[in-house]
Specification:
mainly alpha
Protein backbone atom coordinates (compact mmCIF):
# COMPACT_ATOMS: atom_id res chain seq x y z
CA UNK A 1 0.00 0.00 0.00
CA UNK A 2 1.28 3.43 -0.87
CA UNK A 3 2.82 5.68 1.78
CA UNK A 4 0.01 8.29 1.65
CA UNK A 5 -2.28 5.71 3.29
CA UNK A 6 0.01 4.60 6.13
CA UNK A 7 -2.53 5.62 8.81
CA UNK A 8 -5.37 3.86 6.99
CA UNK A 9 -3.27 0.70 6.75
CA UNK A 10 -2.50 0.86 10.47
CA UNK A 11 -6.15 1.34 11.51
CA UNK A 12 -7.44 -1.24 9.02
CA UNK A 13 -5.02 -3.87 10.35
CA UNK A 14 -5.89 -3.03 13.97
CA UNK A 15 -9.59 -3.42 13.18
CA UNK A 16 -8.88 -6.88 11.84
CA UNK A 17 -6.72 -7.89 14.80
CA UNK A 18 -9.45 -6.88 17.22
CA UNK A 19 -12.47 -8.28 15.41
CA UNK A 20 -11.56 -11.18 13.11
CA UNK A 21 -12.48 -13.79 15.74
CA UNK A 22 -15.78 -12.15 16.67
CA UNK A 23 -18.10 -14.43 14.70
CA UNK A 24 -21.63 -14.12 16.06
CA UNK A 25 -22.91 -17.34 14.45
CA UNK A 26 -20.50 -19.35 16.61
CA UNK A 27 -22.32 -18.22 19.76
CA UNK A 28 -25.96 -17.98 18.67
CA UNK A 29 -26.82 -21.64 18.01
CA UNK A 30 -28.48 -23.37 21.03
CA UNK A 31 -26.54 -26.34 22.38
CA UNK A 32 -29.67 -27.92 23.89
CA UNK A 33 -32.11 -27.45 21.00
CA UNK A 34 -32.99 -31.15 20.70
CA UNK A 35 -33.70 -31.56 24.42
CA UNK A 36 -35.82 -28.38 24.45
CA UNK A 37 -37.70 -29.54 21.35
CA UNK A 38 -38.74 -32.73 23.11
CA UNK A 39 -39.77 -30.81 26.24
CA UNK A 40 -41.76 -28.34 24.14
CA UNK A 41 -43.64 -31.18 22.42
CA UNK A 42 -44.35 -32.91 25.75
CA UNK A 43 -45.78 -29.66 27.12
CA UNK A 44 -48.38 -29.68 24.37
CA UNK A 45 -46.52 -26.83 22.64
CA UNK A 46 -47.30 -24.48 25.52
CA UNK A 47 -44.05 -23.94 27.46
CA UNK A 48 -41.44 -21.92 25.56
CA UNK A 49 -37.98 -23.53 25.22
CA UNK A 50 -35.15 -22.29 27.41
CA UNK A 51 -32.09 -22.43 25.21
CA UNK A 52 -28.46 -22.53 26.31
CA UNK A 53 -25.57 -21.28 24.15
CA UNK A 54 -21.81 -21.77 23.70
CA UNK A 55 -19.78 -19.66 26.08
CA UNK A 56 -17.82 -16.80 24.56
CA UNK A 57 -14.24 -16.70 25.85
CA UNK A 58 -13.32 -13.44 24.10
CA UNK A 59 -12.64 -10.39 26.26
CA UNK A 60 -15.39 -8.28 24.71
CA UNK A 61 -14.85 -5.34 27.05
CA UNK A 62 -11.17 -5.09 26.10
CA UNK A 63 -11.99 -5.38 22.39
CA UNK A 64 -14.56 -2.60 22.65
CA UNK A 65 -12.17 -0.36 24.61
CA UNK A 66 -9.44 -0.76 21.97
CA UNK A 67 -11.93 -0.27 19.15
CA UNK A 68 -12.93 3.14 20.46
CA UNK A 69 -9.32 4.22 20.85
CA UNK A 70 -8.82 4.15 17.09
CA UNK A 71 -8.43 7.66 15.65
CA UNK A 72 -10.49 7.53 12.47
CA UNK A 73 -10.10 11.27 11.90
CA UNK A 74 -6.43 10.66 11.08
CA UNK A 75 -7.23 8.46 8.07
CA UNK A 76 -5.87 10.25 5.00
CA UNK A 77 -9.10 10.31 2.95
CA UNK A 78 -12.25 11.88 4.45
CA UNK A 79 -14.73 9.52 2.75
CA UNK A 80 -12.73 6.46 3.84
CA UNK A 81 -12.44 7.85 7.38
CA UNK A 82 -16.24 8.15 7.53
CA UNK A 83 -16.56 4.55 6.29
CA UNK A 84 -14.37 3.30 9.13
CA UNK A 85 -16.25 5.40 11.68
CA UNK A 86 -19.46 3.70 10.57
CA UNK A 87 -17.68 0.35 10.66
CA UNK A 88 -16.78 0.95 14.31
CA UNK A 89 -20.41 1.55 15.26
CA UNK A 90 -21.55 -1.46 13.26
CA UNK A 91 -19.14 -3.79 15.04
CA UNK A 92 -20.06 -2.23 18.35
CA UNK A 93 -23.52 -3.64 17.65
CA UNK A 94 -22.07 -7.07 16.82
CA UNK A 95 -20.15 -7.03 20.12
CA UNK A 96 -23.39 -6.13 21.92
CA UNK A 97 -25.09 -9.12 20.29
CA UNK A 98 -22.33 -11.54 21.34
CA UNK A 99 -22.31 -10.15 24.87
CA UNK A 100 -26.08 -10.42 25.29
CA UNK A 101 -26.82 -13.82 23.70
CA UNK A 102 -29.55 -15.43 25.79
CA UNK A 103 -30.48 -12.19 27.61
CA UNK A 104 -33.81 -11.68 25.91
CA UNK A 105 -34.58 -7.94 25.91
CA UNK A 106 -30.91 -6.91 25.83
CA UNK A 107 -30.14 -9.23 22.95
CA UNK A 108 -33.21 -8.18 20.97
CA UNK A 109 -32.26 -4.52 21.39
CA UNK A 110 -28.72 -5.31 20.18
CA UNK A 111 -30.07 -7.36 17.27
CA UNK A 112 -32.36 -4.52 16.19
CA UNK A 113 -29.46 -2.06 16.37
CA UNK A 114 -27.38 -4.30 14.11
CA UNK A 115 -29.86 -6.05 11.81
CA UNK A 116 -32.95 -3.85 12.03
CA UNK A 117 -36.66 -4.67 11.88
CA UNK A 118 -38.85 -5.53 8.88
CA UNK A 119 -40.36 -2.47 7.20
CA UNK A 120 -44.05 -2.24 6.33
CA UNK A 121 -43.09 -2.97 2.71
CA UNK A 122 -41.04 -6.02 3.77
CA UNK A 123 -44.05 -7.39 5.65
CA UNK A 124 -46.43 -6.63 2.79
CA UNK A 125 -44.20 -8.51 0.34
CA UNK A 126 -43.67 -11.38 2.76
CA UNK A 127 -47.40 -11.91 3.26
CA UNK A 128 -48.00 -11.72 -0.51
CA UNK A 129 -45.27 -14.29 -1.19
CA UNK A 130 -46.59 -16.60 1.53
CA UNK A 131 -50.07 -16.42 0.06
CA UNK A 132 -48.84 -17.00 -3.50
CA UNK A 133 -46.45 -19.84 -2.66
CA UNK A 134 -48.36 -21.66 0.11
CA UNK A 135 -50.39 -23.77 -2.33
CA UNK A 136 -47.23 -24.66 -4.28
CA UNK A 137 -44.90 -25.87 -1.55
CA UNK A 138 -46.22 -29.42 -1.35
CA UNK A 139 -45.89 -29.72 -5.12
CA UNK A 140 -42.21 -28.76 -5.06
CA UNK A 141 -41.17 -30.64 -1.91
CA UNK A 142 -39.12 -33.60 -3.07
CA UNK A 143 -38.23 -36.50 -0.85
CA UNK A 144 -35.11 -35.92 1.24
CA UNK A 145 -32.84 -38.56 -0.26
CA UNK A 146 -29.31 -37.56 0.73
CA UNK A 147 -27.80 -38.02 4.19
CA UNK A 148 -25.40 -35.53 5.76
CA UNK A 149 -22.51 -37.83 4.80
CA UNK A 150 -23.60 -37.78 1.14
CA UNK A 151 -24.10 -34.03 1.34
CA UNK A 152 -20.52 -33.64 2.63
CA UNK A 153 -19.25 -35.46 -0.48
CA UNK A 154 -21.31 -33.18 -2.72
CA UNK A 155 -20.02 -30.04 -0.99
CA UNK A 156 -16.42 -31.28 -1.18
CA UNK A 157 -16.83 -31.79 -4.92
CA UNK A 158 -18.27 -28.27 -5.29
CA UNK A 159 -15.43 -26.76 -3.24
CA UNK A 160 -12.87 -28.57 -5.39
CA UNK A 161 -14.23 -26.84 -8.51
CA UNK A 162 -12.94 -23.58 -7.04
CA UNK A 163 -9.78 -24.99 -5.48
CA UNK A 164 -10.52 -23.48 -2.06
CA UNK A 165 -8.49 -24.76 0.88
CA UNK A 166 -11.35 -25.28 3.33
CA UNK A 167 -12.67 -27.96 5.64
CA UNK A 168 -16.08 -29.46 4.89
CA UNK A 169 -17.47 -31.02 8.07
CA UNK A 170 -20.62 -31.69 10.09
CA UNK A 171 -21.71 -30.41 13.51
CA UNK A 172 -24.61 -31.08 15.86
CA UNK A 173 -25.52 -27.72 17.37
CA UNK A 174 -26.80 -25.73 14.38
CA UNK A 175 -30.08 -23.95 13.68
CA UNK A 176 -29.54 -24.06 9.91
CA UNK A 177 -28.71 -26.98 7.65
CA UNK A 178 -25.50 -25.39 6.41
CA UNK A 179 -23.24 -22.44 7.16
CA UNK A 180 -19.77 -21.08 6.40
CA UNK A 181 -17.36 -20.12 9.16
CA UNK A 182 -15.09 -17.43 7.75
CA UNK A 183 -12.68 -17.45 10.67
CA UNK A 184 -12.29 -21.25 10.57
CA UNK A 185 -12.43 -21.58 6.75
CA UNK A 186 -15.09 -24.25 7.03
CA UNK A 187 -18.30 -25.33 5.36
CA UNK A 188 -20.42 -26.89 8.11
CA UNK A 189 -23.47 -29.11 7.60
CA UNK A 190 -25.90 -30.12 10.31
CA UNK A 191 -25.42 -33.69 11.43
CA UNK A 192 -28.34 -36.09 11.03
CA UNK A 193 -30.12 -34.05 8.33
CA UNK A 194 -31.48 -35.16 4.96
CA UNK A 195 -31.24 -33.12 1.76
CA UNK A 196 -32.95 -33.22 -1.62
CA UNK A 197 -30.81 -32.91 -4.76
CA UNK A 198 -32.26 -29.43 -5.42
CA UNK A 199 -31.57 -28.36 -1.85
CA UNK A 200 -27.93 -29.45 -2.14
CA UNK A 201 -27.55 -27.42 -5.33
CA UNK A 202 -29.07 -24.37 -3.63
CA UNK A 203 -26.88 -24.72 -0.53
CA UNK A 204 -23.71 -25.20 -2.60
CA UNK A 205 -24.34 -22.11 -4.72
CA UNK A 206 -25.35 -20.10 -1.63
CA UNK A 207 -22.58 -21.11 0.79
CA UNK A 208 -19.71 -21.83 -1.60
CA UNK A 209 -20.62 -19.92 -4.77
CA UNK A 210 -21.11 -16.69 -2.80
CA UNK A 211 -20.01 -16.84 0.84
CA UNK A 212 -16.72 -18.65 0.17
CA UNK A 213 -16.05 -16.75 -3.05
CA UNK A 214 -16.33 -13.46 -1.17
CA UNK A 215 -14.22 -14.84 1.69
CA UNK A 216 -11.33 -15.78 -0.60
CA UNK A 217 -11.63 -12.67 -2.78
CA UNK A 218 -11.45 -10.61 0.40
CA UNK A 219 -8.17 -12.28 1.38
CA UNK A 220 -6.56 -10.88 -1.77
CA UNK A 221 -7.77 -7.33 -1.18
CA UNK A 222 -5.46 -4.65 0.13
CA UNK A 223 -7.74 -3.71 3.03
CA UNK A 224 -8.95 -6.04 5.77
CA UNK A 225 -12.38 -4.37 5.77
CA UNK A 226 -13.25 -6.65 2.84
CA UNK A 227 -12.79 -9.66 5.13
CA UNK A 228 -14.36 -8.19 8.27
CA UNK A 229 -17.36 -6.86 6.37
CA UNK A 230 -18.56 -3.40 5.40
CA UNK A 231 -21.16 -1.86 7.73
CA UNK A 232 -24.53 -3.60 7.48
CA UNK A 233 -23.24 -6.04 4.85
CA UNK A 234 -25.54 -8.92 5.82
CA UNK A 235 -28.53 -7.86 3.71
CA UNK A 236 -26.38 -7.61 0.59
CA UNK A 237 -24.35 -10.75 1.22
CA UNK A 238 -27.34 -12.95 2.04
CA UNK A 239 -29.37 -11.37 -0.77
CA UNK A 240 -26.54 -12.18 -3.16
CA UNK A 241 -26.41 -15.77 -1.87
CA UNK A 242 -30.17 -16.20 -2.47
CA UNK A 243 -29.71 -14.63 -5.91
CA UNK A 244 -27.15 -17.40 -6.58
CA UNK A 245 -29.81 -19.98 -5.67
CA UNK A 246 -32.18 -18.27 -8.10
CA UNK A 247 -29.69 -18.16 -11.00
CA UNK A 248 -28.73 -21.79 -10.42
CA UNK A 249 -32.40 -22.74 -10.95
CA UNK A 250 -32.57 -24.15 -7.43
CA UNK A 251 -34.77 -21.48 -5.81
CA UNK A 252 -38.21 -23.08 -5.46
CA UNK A 253 -41.47 -22.19 -3.74
CA UNK A 254 -40.44 -23.96 -0.54
CA UNK A 255 -37.48 -21.62 -0.18
CA UNK A 256 -39.42 -18.47 -1.15
CA UNK A 257 -42.08 -19.41 1.40
CA UNK A 258 -39.50 -19.97 4.14
CA UNK A 259 -37.69 -16.67 3.51
CA UNK A 260 -41.03 -14.83 3.67
CA UNK A 261 -42.02 -16.62 6.89
CA UNK A 262 -38.76 -15.47 8.50
CA UNK A 263 -39.79 -11.85 7.91
CA UNK A 264 -43.14 -12.48 9.62
CA UNK A 265 -41.44 -14.28 12.53
CA UNK A 266 -39.01 -11.38 13.01
CA UNK A 267 -42.00 -9.08 13.33
CA UNK A 268 -43.55 -11.49 15.85
CA UNK A 269 -40.40 -11.47 17.98
CA UNK A 270 -40.23 -7.67 17.97
CA UNK A 271 -43.91 -7.42 18.99
CA UNK A 272 -43.30 -9.74 21.94
CA UNK A 273 -45.21 -12.74 20.61
CA UNK A 274 -44.18 -15.93 22.41
CA UNK A 275 -42.28 -18.82 20.86
CA UNK A 276 -45.35 -21.03 21.37
CA UNK A 277 -47.67 -18.52 19.64
CA UNK A 278 -45.39 -18.27 16.60
CA UNK A 279 -45.10 -22.07 16.49
CA UNK A 280 -48.89 -22.33 16.60
CA UNK A 281 -49.15 -19.84 13.71
CA UNK A 282 -46.81 -21.90 11.53
CA UNK A 283 -48.50 -25.22 12.29
CA UNK A 284 -52.10 -23.98 12.41
CA UNK A 285 -52.24 -21.22 9.81
CA UNK A 286 -49.38 -22.18 7.47
CA UNK A 287 -49.79 -25.98 7.86
CA UNK A 288 -46.11 -26.72 8.42
CA UNK A 289 -45.00 -29.92 10.15
CA UNK A 290 -44.15 -29.43 13.80
CA UNK A 291 -40.45 -30.19 13.23
CA UNK A 292 -40.20 -27.68 10.39
CA UNK A 293 -42.07 -25.09 12.43
CA UNK A 294 -39.85 -25.65 15.47
CA UNK A 295 -36.66 -25.16 13.41
CA UNK A 296 -37.94 -21.97 11.80
CA UNK A 297 -39.14 -20.41 15.05
CA UNK A 298 -35.90 -21.40 16.77
CA UNK A 299 -33.88 -19.55 14.10
CA UNK A 300 -35.68 -16.28 14.80
CA UNK A 301 -36.07 -16.60 18.57
CA UNK A 302 -32.56 -17.84 19.36
CA UNK A 303 -30.45 -15.56 21.49
CA UNK A 304 -33.52 -13.55 22.47
CA UNK A 305 -34.63 -12.50 18.97
CA UNK A 306 -32.18 -12.88 16.07
CA UNK A 307 -33.62 -10.53 13.44
CA UNK A 308 -30.73 -11.17 11.01
CA UNK A 309 -32.78 -13.84 9.25
CA UNK A 310 -35.35 -11.29 8.11
CA UNK A 311 -32.71 -9.73 5.80
CA UNK A 312 -32.47 -12.52 3.23
CA UNK A 313 -35.72 -11.66 1.43
CA UNK A 314 -35.30 -7.85 1.14
CA UNK A 315 -31.65 -8.35 0.18
CA UNK A 316 -32.67 -10.70 -2.62
CA UNK A 317 -35.47 -8.41 -3.81
CA UNK A 318 -33.15 -5.39 -3.79
CA UNK A 319 -30.72 -7.18 -6.12
CA UNK A 320 -33.49 -8.48 -8.38
CA UNK A 321 -34.65 -4.87 -8.79
CA UNK A 322 -31.11 -3.56 -9.36
CA UNK A 323 -30.22 -6.03 -12.14
CA UNK A 324 -26.52 -5.59 -11.23
CA UNK A 325 -24.20 -5.29 -14.24
CA UNK A 326 -20.81 -7.01 -14.47
CA UNK A 327 -18.97 -4.13 -12.77
CA UNK A 328 -21.43 -4.01 -9.88
CA UNK A 329 -21.31 -7.79 -9.52
CA UNK A 330 -17.52 -7.64 -9.32
CA UNK A 331 -17.78 -5.12 -6.49
CA UNK A 332 -20.36 -7.22 -4.67
CA UNK A 333 -18.16 -10.33 -4.91
CA UNK A 334 -14.94 -8.51 -3.91
CA UNK A 335 -15.48 -9.36 -0.25
CA UNK A 336 -18.09 -8.81 2.44
CA UNK A 337 -19.34 -5.65 0.76
CA UNK A 338 -22.68 -3.86 1.03
CA UNK A 339 -24.90 -2.21 -1.59
CA UNK A 340 -25.09 0.94 0.54
CA UNK A 341 -21.35 1.41 0.05
CA UNK A 342 -21.08 0.83 -3.69
CA UNK A 343 -20.18 4.52 -4.02
CA UNK A 344 -16.95 3.74 -2.12
CA UNK A 345 -15.69 1.20 -4.64
CA UNK A 346 -14.59 3.70 -7.33
CA UNK A 347 -12.90 5.75 -4.61
CA UNK A 348 -10.96 2.72 -3.35
CA UNK A 349 -10.06 1.71 -6.91
CA UNK A 350 -8.87 5.20 -7.84
CA UNK A 351 -6.69 5.34 -4.73
CA UNK A 352 -5.09 1.98 -5.57
CA UNK A 353 -6.69 0.36 -2.52
CA UNK A 354 -8.68 -2.36 -4.30
CA UNK A 355 -7.49 -5.38 -6.30
CA UNK A 356 -9.31 -7.28 -9.08
CA UNK A 357 -11.20 -10.36 -7.91
CA UNK A 358 -9.27 -13.62 -7.85
CA UNK A 359 -12.40 -15.78 -8.03
CA UNK A 360 -15.65 -15.52 -9.94
CA UNK A 361 -18.84 -17.27 -8.88
CA UNK A 362 -19.65 -19.89 -11.51
CA UNK A 363 -23.33 -19.47 -10.66
CA UNK A 364 -23.64 -16.04 -12.22
CA UNK A 365 -21.77 -17.10 -15.35
CA UNK A 366 -23.85 -20.22 -16.00
CA UNK A 367 -26.69 -20.50 -18.48
CA UNK A 368 -28.95 -22.63 -16.30
CA UNK A 369 -32.68 -21.97 -16.77
CA UNK A 370 -34.51 -20.20 -13.96
CA UNK A 371 -37.48 -21.77 -12.21
CA UNK A 372 -40.10 -20.20 -14.51
CA UNK A 373 -42.96 -20.19 -12.00
CA UNK A 374 -40.80 -18.55 -9.32
CA UNK A 375 -39.56 -15.96 -11.86
CA UNK A 376 -43.13 -15.14 -12.84
CA UNK A 377 -44.18 -14.77 -9.19
CA UNK A 378 -41.29 -12.40 -8.49
CA UNK A 379 -42.12 -10.32 -11.57
CA UNK A 380 -45.71 -9.91 -10.34
CA UNK A 381 -44.94 -9.06 -6.75
CA UNK A 382 -41.59 -7.24 -6.78
Amino acid sequence: MSAPFAKLQQIDLRFYQLLNKVELLLYINPINAEKERQKFYKSGYSIDPVFRYPKCTLNLRAIRKELFKLEMQKIENEAIAELYEQLRWYFSGILDCVEHVGKKELFLRSSLKTFGAPSALDLQRAHALIKASKSKINLTSSQRLHTTEEALEYMNSFVNQYGFNVTVKSATHMSSKAMVSNSKKSVILKRGEHFSALELEALANHEIGVHLVTTFNAENQRLKIFSLGFPFNVQTQEGLAVLAEYYSGALNFDRIFELAVRVVLADNVIKGQSFAASFDQLVGEYKLSRDHAFKLVTRLYRGGGFTKDRLYLPGFIELIQQHPNDETMNWLLAGKTASDYQHMMPILEQQGLMNPNTYQSTTFNSAKPLNKEVAQLLQRLV
